[in-house]
Amino acid sequence: YSGVVWVTDSITRRGGEQFASLRRALRRMDGLWVLSDAQVAPLTAFLGEGAPPVHYVRFGVDQDFFRPTPYPTRPLVVSVGGDRDRDPETLLRAMATLRRVRPDVEIVVQSRTSIDPPAGVSVVPYLTHAELRNLYARASVVAIATRANLHVSGMTVGLEAMATGRPLVITRTPGMDDYFGGTSAARMVEVGDADALARETLRLLDDPVAGAAAGEAASAHVAGGFTT
């Protein structure tokens, strides 16, 4: 059995003929699993007739490690993650807008991007799991920008942050509604829309009561169906 992540986006962007050896290897499995239902159809088509079944398996996070904490009084926006489909350009544009409007807000971004951050934005290349948990606990809002993708880039950070009791602003991509749809705790914006990312984050920052309520909804959402 094998999990499949990147190849569904690679075949969509570049065509399946470049991945013949990978296709042969995956066809030898007894079964395959993906973490986004948006991956099932393109992967099934790529593998062809007689291939092993492809299963969508819902992802969950450890609610004992990422546990709810009281909503903070000091405003802090956090963004975490550096996989190949994160969008640091859009994220940092949004954070620059946010700082112009609310210069009192602290912003911490964990990323290996080479882009120079705007004034007032701290970029760190790496965090341990314990450091990450502590950062979520200090956050008022967690914001994630991604490029178009099928594997739900950002869902791990999103679920960890929400398990901690923090509202989320994230790019809407295929499969994202399966994890963050139907809850007031997550606000989704379109790919590349830095203005919307900044605007939705500011709305939560400007109303701490609503932010705290969204945080409570966030932890309940994860506990209700997205834990290990």
Task: Summarize the structure in short.
The protein has 228 residues and is of the alpha/beta class. 40% of the residues lie in helices and 15% in strands. The chain starts with a strand and ends in a 5-residue tail after the last helix.
Count of helical regions:
9
What Rg is obtained from the alpha carbons, in whole angstroms? 18 Å
User: What share of the residues lie within helices?
Assistant: 25-40%
What fraction of residues sit in β-strands? Answer: 5-15%
Structural class: alpha/beta
| Overall mean pLDDT | 96
Ends distance: 20 Å
* Annotation, overall tally of beta strands: 9
Query: How many strands, what sense, and barrel or not for the largest sheet?
Result: 6 strands, parallel
Which regions have little confidence, pLDDT < 50, spanning 5+ residues? none
Features:
alpha/beta; globular; 3-stranded parallel β-sheet; 228 residues; 15% strand; 6-stranded parallel β-sheet; single chain; 9 helices
Describe the model.
The protein is an alpha/beta fold and 228 residues long. Helices cover 40% and strands 15% of the residues. It has 9 helices and 9 strands. The protein has helices at residues 7-14, 20-27, 40-47, 88-101, 129-138, 155-163, 176-180, 194-206, 208-223; strands at residues 2-3, 32-34, 54-56, 76-80, 106-110, 121-124, 141-144, 168-171, 186-189. The strands form 2 sheets. The protein has a 6-stranded parallel beta sheet, with helices on both faces. Helix 4 (88-101) packs across helix 8 and helix 6 packs across helix 9. The model has no long low-confidence stretch (mean pLDDT 96).
